[in-house]
Amino acid sequence: MDVPQATPHFKYLVAEHTEDAQQAIDQLLNVYRKIPAVIIYRFNSAYETDLANWEAYFEAHQVLKSIPFFLYADQLSAPLKSLVKKYNFIDEIITWECLENRLADKVNFVSKFKRLHLFGAKAPQPPIMANSGKHLNYALKRLFDIVVSASLLLLLLPLFIVIAVMIRLESKGPIFYSSPRAGRNYRMFRFHKFRTMIPNADKQLAQLKDKNQYNTGNNGPVFLKFSNDPRITRFGRFLRNTSLDELPQLFNVLVGDMSLVGNRPLPLYEAASLTTDAWAERFLAPAGITGLWQISKRGKKDMSVEERITLDINYANKHSFVYDMWLMVNTPFAMVQKDNV
Known about the structure:
The relative contact order is 0.11. The chain is mostly helical.
């Protein structure tokens, strides 16, 4: 991958070879839990080998199919246009004018279109219910989310201030931890929690993978959780064990990114491993603060990846306003964890 030296509004990485670019993307996914905004390939004499390599790479990394892939050339030509038809992953041929003036708008448009097409159309559908009942459930759920989250934010404001002061006194760094997460239909949003770890804890993630609580092996879905995680601060451990670190997600609920009840929104490196038909169904449910998984297994060590996803899929298939109320009532019993995870 070779990115021309004019990409306004983007931080970019230039790689001389396709293999180097793919290794960099793998590192973004697995270590830094990020995905690139766009991949730009400069047309050159080795295009046949390189494009075949990219095609195989996208087949092995399904979640990356939602990322715009542009072919950069000095000028358009008929042979170049034929490549777009041959390689379906190429979204468009761009020239210097686009890089200089319209790249951000084009990336934004293509990203939204591809996410809707790839994930919205291919995702398995839950059992069909009457439209009136479906709309009523949605309206009740959203109204409940707004009223409860707004009320709790007002009532808990003094507690927010106390927690913020304690976090700042214990360690330098931000009070809140925010990261991109994938929610319903793989829609990405900024997810908020109180910071419970030392600053820059994400950079130490690769060093802890051999201590993963989930035994995932080398293939299949990837979940990461560490028992007695050394990156957690002393006050952060208290926040996690009492679930107080989750309180800032009330802001996510208020603006509609999440619901009070639903499947947990996943870090992008986890969502990237759940794009097959067998697993994608869990993304049909709204993202939530609490849900079936939390009240069933939270904080226990005997959780398998398959069991966790099965619980998420079960909720996606039968969630309703009444079922959400039952889960809310049972949530307090699961709030205090039995293990430092």
